[in-house]
Design a protein that fits this description.
- By secondary structure, the chain is of the alpha+beta class.
- 47% of the residues lie in helices and 22% in strands.
- It has five helices and five strands.
- Strand 4 and strand 5 form a beta hairpin.
- It is elongated, with a radius of gyration of 21 Å.
- 21% of the residues are buried.
């Protein structure tokens, strides 16, 4: 997703909600005789303003998280990477639990799968990180690291998911 695509997607989501909320507000708190066109125009400006604020803060937060180039891959809240490591599953779990950043999160084991659940903050509703072993040979292990938001319709995450997957990759 280029920057423009992110702005466009957010605008297309926000505009219908601003139109609906404008109509509802006019029914509850009648201000003056507004035409339907006035409601659509007011909603258009409100949606543009909200989109600009929300997406701009997302890009600022992504820069704070270390993102330099904004690409479709690193702007997406759903991240997935295949990593080779000398660590087996138990060593991976131990290393993550000892890490100063990841030790504060909730860990679950589901068979061979390691699941890490993060907490929500200003820019994220929290995420679910999964580390799944896919292959093992000659003391080398291959893992799929995936991260997705707890809220499935989340479009913006400030680069948090990308950064977390990169941190795990560096630990392995």
């Amino acid at each position: 997703m280029s920057k423009f695509k992110v702005y466009l997607k957010m605008f297309l989501i926000l505009y219908p909600f601003t139109v609906i909320s404008n109509f509802l507000m006019d029914k509850v708190l009648p201000r003056y005789d507004k035409s339907i066109i006035d409601n659509f125009v007011d909603s258009l400006f409100l949606a543009i303003f909200l989109t600009f604020i929300m997406v701009s803060f997302n890009f600022i937060e992504a820069r704070k998280n270390g993102l330099k180039n904004f690409t479709d891959e690193n702007l997406s809240p759903k991240q997935k990477r295949v990593v080779d490591s000398k660590l087996n599953r138990d060593d991976v779990l131990t290393k993550l639990k000892e890490d100063t950043y990841f030790k504060k999160f909730k860990f679950e084991l589901k068979g061979d799968l390691i699941v890490i659940k993060t907490f929500s903050n200003t820019f994220s509703y929290g995420e679910i990180i999964k580390i799944a072993p896919i292959d093992s040979h000659d003391n080398m292990h291959q893992y799929i690291i995936s991260s997705e938001p707890k809220n499935k319709i989340n479009l913006l995450d400030g680069g948090v998911n990308y950064t977390n997957v990169t941190k795990i990759q560096a630990l392995l």
